[in-house]
Design goal:
Blueprint (H helix, E strand, L loop, with lengths): L1 E2 L3 H4 L8 H16 L6 H12 L2 H11 L5 E3 L11 H10 L3 E2 L3 E2 L1 H7 L2 H7 L1 H6 L8 H8 L7 E2 H4 L3 H5 L4 E4 L2 H12 L7 H7 L9 E2 L9 H18 L4 H5 L10 H20 L3 H12 L6 H13 L3 H13 L4 H18 L14 E6 L7 H9 L6 E3 L4 H9 L1 H4 L23 H4 L1 H13 L2 H12 L14 H10 L2 H13 L11 E5 L6 E8 L7 H12 L4 E8 L7
Parallel strand pairs: 8-12, 11-12
Antiparallel strand pairs: 1-7, 2-6, 3-6, 4-5, 9-10, 10-11
Helix pairs in contact: 2-12, 4-5, 14-16, 16-17, 17-18, 18-19, 18-20, 19-20, 22-28
C-alpha cells in the first residue's frame, strides 16, 4: 500500500511560469502508469508525441485545454512565457492536435468576432434579413442564428477575412475529447478540473492524506469510461436544448454490476423524463420514469414521479396497484412518506378502504411577529430576536449535526479502502453515496459511535477539529463550526441525541444530510444544560418533506425541536 503524495508534492510551484504544463504532465504520467490497460494505442503513444514537440508548443496546447471552448483567435493565445503563438501553433497543427481552418457554426462565429467584424462578415445576410448596418449583436443573432446553421470555414463566412485580420487566424483544438478522458480517469469525475492544482498550491484547498492501494482507480475497464463520457455528453446536450426523444435512443447501457454508473444512467433517464413531461409528452415521460426507477441504480424520485403522473392522467387503478406493492417494501423514508400520502388518495378515487397508518404528528410550533428585517434573512432575524446572553442562538441549518458527525466519524469516512481514494484531491471518498458505502465500513462507524456511549466523543471531536481543521470534508464546513459553538454543542447536546441523528444520517447519507433545522439555542447555564432546534418558516413558507422526516426523528427520540412561524409587523410609516 502506498501513500498518496501530499498536494504540495503533486502540484507545481506557481513561481514556475510553466506550472500548468508541469501539472498536465503529472496527470498524463499518473494516468499512463495506472490506467495503461484502459488506453488505446494512440492514447498510449500521446505521451511520447507530446514530449517530442517544443516546450512552447506543449505549453500552448495545455493553455488551450484549460480554457473554455475549443475555438480560439490566435491573437488571444499570446502568453509571455510562450512567445509567438504563430510559431507555437505550427507543431500542434502538424501533429493534428489543432485544426488550422476549422468549419465554424454561426454561434461560434458570434462568440469569436467583434460586432464590427460581424457586420462586415455578414453584411449581405444582415441586409437580406431587413436589418440596418447598425443592428446590435443581439438583433443580428435573433435574425440569423435560426436560419444559418451550416458550418463553414471562416473564409466562406467572410471572404475578406484575411485582408482584414492579416496573419491572425481562428483555430480549433481537436484534442478535447482525449483531455476530458484523461481528466476523468484521473479524478474519477468531470466536476473537478485543472484548477484543483492551482487552488491547492495557493493553499485555498487542502486535502486529507490517505493511503491508496496501487490498483485503486475509478474505472475497471474502458467500457465504463466510455459509458460515463456518453452519459455526461447526453446531460450536456439536454441542457443545451435537445429534446428527450432525440437523446433517449443514445442512452448507453452500463456494465451489469456497476451500481454507481447505473445510478448515473438512472438519473439521466429521470431528467429526460422531466423534460418530456414539461413538453407535454406524457407517454414518453412515463416510459422514461419507468426505466429510471427500475432495476440496478433505480431512482426513487422517478418511481414517485411516475405514480403521480399516472394519478394526474386518471389512471388510478394502475397507480394504486403499483403504489400498494411499493408501500409493502419502500426503498427509503422518502419513498415511504410519498406513498403514505398517495395510496389513500388513490383509494378514495377507487372507493377502496385506505390502509391504516399512524397519522403524521404535528410538530411543536410557536409564532413570532417581528419588524421586517431589510438586511438579514428571516432565519437570522429570529436568531437575533431569541438570543440572550444566557441562551445564545446560532444559525446552523445543515452544518452543525453533519459537522459533528464528520468530526467524530473522520476515521471511517477517510478509511483507505480500495476504490475510495485514488488521486491527491479527494474531498471525500469516491464511493460516498454508493449503496455499500456504510456496509464496507460498518466496524469503523460502530467504533466511532461507540465513543458516544463511552462519553469520549467530545475528546475525539476536539482532536479531529484541531488536527484536521481546514482539510476538505464532505460533512465538515469549517467556517460554520467555530470554537465557541462547538464547545456549547458538546456541553448541551446529550450523546444519546447525537447517536440518534448520526444513525439516521448513516441510513441515507445523500438525502439525510439536508432538511435539518435552521437554528439551535443553547441554555448552558441552566441546572441541566439544554438546547432546542428551531426550524424557521416565514410568511407563506411551509415545511419541506425532508424537514418533516427529520422532525419525526426528533419526536421519536425525544430531541427538543420546534417550528417557528414568522409574520411581519405592519409598516406604519405611510399611515
Amino acid at each position: 500500500m502506498n501513500s498518496i503524495s501530499a498536494p504540495v508534492s503533486s502540484t507545481a510551484s506557481l513561481d514556475d511560469p510553466f506550472y500548468y504544463l508541469a501539472n498536465f504532465r503529472f496527470v498524463l504520467d499518473w494516468v499512463s502508469d495506472r490506467h495503461a490497460d484502459l488506453l488505446s494505442e494512440q492514447e498510449l503513444a500521446f505521451g511520447e508525441r507530446f514530449a517530442a514537440v517544443p516546450k512552447a508548443a506543449q505549453a500552448l496546447l495545455v493553455r488551450m485545454v484549460m480554457r473554455k471552448g475549443d475555438c480560439f483567435r490566435s491573437r488571444k493565445l499570446e502568453y509571455a512565457e510562450i512567445g509567438a503563438a504563430r510559431e507555437a501553433l505550427t507543431p500542434l497543427i502538424e501533429a493534428g492536435w489543432v485544426e488550422a481552418e476549422p468549419k465554424l457554426k454561426l454561434v461560434e462565429l458570434f462568440r469569436l468576432l467583434r460586432l464590427d467584424e460581424l457586420r462586415q462578415a455578414l453584411a449581405g445576410e444582415i441586409a437580406a434579413a431587413g436589418l440596418t448596418s447598425s443592428a446590435s449583436k443581439a438583433a443580428i443573432g435573433e435574425a440569423l442564428l435560426p436560419e444559418l446553421d451550416q458550418p463553414r470555414p471562416l473564409a466562406q463566412w467572410w471572404p475578406q477575412a484575411s485582408a482584414v485580420l492579416g496573419e491572425e487566424r481562428i483555430v480549433r483544438l481537436t484534442l478535447m475529447p482525449w483531455c476530458d478522458r484523461l481528466r476523468l480517469m484521473f479524478f474519477g469525475n468531470l466536476r473537478q478540473d485543472w484548477s484543483e492544482f492551482v487552488l491547492t498550491e495557493l493553499g485555498l484547498q487542502r486535502f486529507e492524506r490517505v493511503e491508496w492501494h496501487p490498483d485503486s482507480r475509478a474505472f475497471r475497464n474502458r467500457e465504463e469510461v466510455d459509458a460515463y463520457l456518453s452519459l455526461h455528453a447526453l446531460r450536456e446536450r439536454l441542457a443545451a436544448g435537445e429534446t428527450p426523444e432525440e437523446l433517449m435512443a443514445e442512452v448507453p447501457t452500463v456494465p451489469g454490476d456497476n451500481v454507481w454508473l447505473a445510478q448515473r444512467r438512472g438519473r439521466l433517464l429521470f431528467h429526460l423524463g422531466q423534460a418530456a413531461e414539461r413538453a407535454g409528452q406524457v407517454a414518453l415521460a412515463l416510459d422514461l420514469y419507468g426505466a429510471s426507477g427500475a432495476g440496478l441504480g433505480g431512482q426513487v424520485e422517478a418511481r414517485i414521479r411516475r405514480l403521480r403522473l399516472l394519478e394526474r392522467m386518471g389512471e388510478y387503478r394502475q397507480a394504486h396497484s403499483l403504489a400498494s406493492k411499493a408501500l409493502m417494501a419502500p426503498a427509503c423514508e422518502q419513498e415511504h412518506q410519498a406513498l403514505e400520502r398517495l395510496v389513500p388518495r388513490l383509494c378514495r378515487r377507487l372507493g377502496l378502504a385506505a390502509p391504516e397508518h399512524a397519522p403524521e404528528a404535528t410538530p411543536q410550533r410557536f409564532e413570532l411577529c417581528l419588524a421586517r428585517a431589510a438586511t438579514v434573512s428571516v432565519e437570522r432575524a429570529v436568531a437575533e430576536h431569541l438570543t440572550r446572553p444566557d441562551a445564545p442562538v446560532y444559525y446552523v441549518e445543515n452544518t452543525l449535526v453533519t459537522g459533528l458527525f464528520g468530526l467524530l466519524c473522520w476515521p471511517a469516512l477517510f478509511a483507505p479502502l480500495p476504490g475510495a481514494f485514488f488521486h491527491p484531491f479527494h474531498s471525500g471518498p469516491a464511493d460516498l453515496y454508493r449503496d455499500d458505502f456504510v456496509a464496507r465500513r460498518r466496524e469503523l462507524f460502530e467504533a466511532s459511535l461507540a465513543r458516544l456511549d463511552e462519553g469520549s466523543h467530545g475528546e475525539a471531536i476536539w482532536n479531529t477539529w484541531r488536527e484536521k481543521r481546514g482539510l476538505a470534508s464532505p460533512f465538515v464546513h469549517w467556517e460554520g463550526l467555530d470554537e465557541a459553538m462547538l464547545e456549547l454543542a458538546l456541553r448541551c447536546i446529550p450523546a444519546v441525541h447525537l447517536r440518534a441523528c448520526f444513525e439516521r444520517l448513516l441510513t441515507d447519507l445523500r438525502d439525510n444530510r439536508a432538511g435539518l433545522p435552521d437554528l439551535i439555542q443553547f441554555t448552558p447555564e441552566a441546572a441541566e444544560s439544554r438546547y432546542r432546534l428551531i426550524e424557521v418558516k416565514g410568511p407563506g413558507d411551509r415545511l419541506q418533506d425532508n424537514q418533516r422526516r427529520w422532525l419525526a426523528c426528533f419526536r421519536q427520540h425525544g430531541i427538543p425541536a420546534a417550528v417557528c412561524h414568522v409574520s411581519w409587523q405592519p409598516d406604519r410609516r405611510h399611515e
